Each structure stands twice: as structure tokens, then as C-alpha cells.
Amino acid sequence: MVTLPIANQGKEFPVNHVYCVGRNYVAHSKEMGEDERQPPFFFSKPNWTITSNDVHYPKNTKNLQHEVELVLAIGESCSVFGIAVGVDLTRRDLQAQAKKTGKPWFAGKNFIGSAPVSTIVPFKHTIDFSTLELKLKVNGKIRQHSKCNNMIWSPLEILSQILLDIPIESGDLIFTGTPAGVGPINIGDKIVASIEKIVKLSFSII
Questions:
Q1: What is the pLDDT of residues 99-149, one digit of tens each?
Q2: What's the domain count of the chain?
Q3: CB 114: neighbour CB atoms within 10 A?
Q4: For residue 106, what is the enclosing H or E element?
Q5: What is the pLDDT of residue 127?
Q6: CA dist 144 → 28, 136, 160, 192 (Å)
Q7: Domain range spanning residue 115?
Q8: Tens digits of per-residue pLDDT, 23-46?
Q9: pTM
Q10: φ, ψ for residue 13 (rounded to 5)?
Q11: Residue 63 above 70 pLDDT?
Q12: Is 79 left (phi over 0), alpha (psi -120 to 50) or beta?
């Protein structure tokens, strides 16, 4: 069973399905050559991609890239149990090949350790998603930095969109999209991702 620690509870959150939304920040849509006016689209990762440890540089790529994201942890009755910071690691060259041929992104998005996620912080209804601030540093230098009010679709709108097509279950994780600033990482790089003042995730590429 794949689990993530729950902050200050001494308990584990069992991870079920992992869903990701693409193209959810205007600036990132533009840097990827996409039209930000398009509706959101979704893809999934197997739960075995989840990790909180260092990540081995994957095979078959020369362009591994980082994408920092707010992650929703789903509880009972499709409620938001908690939040975390995650990094959607992407073999960008394989993803680009798949885009050109109209094939799924599976190879570009999925390998062991391709979804590092922090401790789950239980959700408080006093939290305003729009004020949350994402940041990612590589070797101490800021690569990505954005407030979640720059999302095209809010976290709750994303949840509603997914529910139109599939049942969401307790234990599911939803990666809500990445802001601008994605870029390459290499063996030896140290990545620190955070939701400012809430939770932090650190790992290295080995």
C-alpha cells in the first residue's frame, strides 16, 4: 500500500488514484504553446509513482523537468481532506514525441518516483485557496513562484470537472496544475518545493 504521512497526527494517508490537470495557469499554457482558453484536461499517474524520497534520474530521457503543484487529498464523500505540495516530474522529450503523434503521455509522465509529494496537511475551511503560494527552488535558486489565484480553474472547479466523468474516492490525489517556470533538472540537483508557510518537500535527483 502506498501512503503519505498526515501532519501532526501520527497517521498515514492511503493513496488510491492520482489525477492531474494540465494547462491550468495562463503563463504556463503560453510557455508550452497552448491556448489558455481551452477547457482543462486530465491525465493520471499510477499510485506507485508517489514518493517522498530522493528520485533516480529515469531512463530514456535527456530532458527531465519539474512542475510544482498544489495537491488535493480527497476524503470521504468527495471532500477535501487535506493539501500537499507535489512535483510532477516529466520526461519532456518523451512527452513532446507523444504530442506530435497524438499518443498518450504515459511514458513522459510515469516512472518510479515521478510524483514526489509532501506530508498531507489536514484542510481547514478557513484556508482561502487563492492566497496559497507555490514555490520551487533548484539548488537554492527560485524556478517557479506563483499564487494559486493565477489558476484558470480553481481547485474546487477542478474537482467538480472531474466528477462529471469519473467517481472520486477517498484516498485519491489531485494535482491541480503548474505555474510558469518549468525547466530541466539533472543528477545532483536538490529540489525544494513548498506551499509557503504551510508545507515543504525536499528531494534530490540521484
A1: 899 898 999 999 999 999 999 999 987 789 999 999 999 999 999 999 999
A2: 1
A3: 23
A4: helix 106-109
A5: 82
A6: 10, 5, 27, 11
A7: 3-204
A8: 888 764 555 555 555 677 899 999
A9: 0.94
A10: -100, 115
A11: yes
A12: beta
Report d(CA 125, CA 200) in Å as an integer: 21
| Enclosing H/E stretch for 14 | strand 11-14
> What is the rounded CA–CA span in Å between residue 117 and residue 18?
11
- Asked if 182 and 28 touch (Cβ cutoff 8 Å), the reply is yes
Q: Which three cell numbers stand for residue 88?
A: 510532477
Cα–Cα dist 135/123, whole Å: 19
Q: For position 48, which CATH number holds?
A: 3.90.850.10
What contacts 116, CB < 8 A, 6 or more positions away?
Answer: 50, 51, 52, 53, 55, 86, 87, 89, 191, 193, 201, 203
Distance (Å, whole) CA 10 – CA 1: 17
Residue 201 has a pLDDT of: 99
* Identity of the amino acid at 159: L
